[in-house]
Prior knowledge:
Layout: H1 3-16, H2 18-25, H3 31-47, H4 53-57, H5 68-94, H6 104-121, H7 127-152
Helix pairs in contact: 1-3, 2-7, 3-5, 6-7
Amino acid sequence: MKLKDGITAWLNGALNDPIAKILLKNCQLTRIQLETLLIDILAEKISNKQLKYDEKAKLRLTKTKISRGSFNRTLAQSKENVIKSIYTVLLLGYLGVFESSTLDPYLEIANKLRDYVEAHQDIPEKQEELENHVKLIEIIRNELELSLKQLSSPSNQPL
Length: 159
């Protein structure tokens, strides 16, 4: 399988994941910025080699050709948004907002997300255990989707 095919399949899977879609809808990144950031960070890990930015630009999911400059501008925007988000969290922590119970629903979702990721990593080999495990993952995913949708509704946001 060619590098582009592998990365395209991985990106499509990641960007079309129901939980990722909800998180993306409510974060500071656009879909294109997230895609570009993922390519920049993960393409080299997947390919096991250094990639130039014009090669990374060719890995974007769009059918139209993306220039290296366009890729780099989008990448810079995505990195700036991530850094601003981190500074927002740092500022809120510094000002004591995290000591308030208003963030408890977000912390609960963060714990559910961690459980979901861990469940995906600990897949059993026995068929009977695997079926139960898949059911557990589905339950956690459904709970996450519901919680995220409820929390993303403007009337339900605790802050």
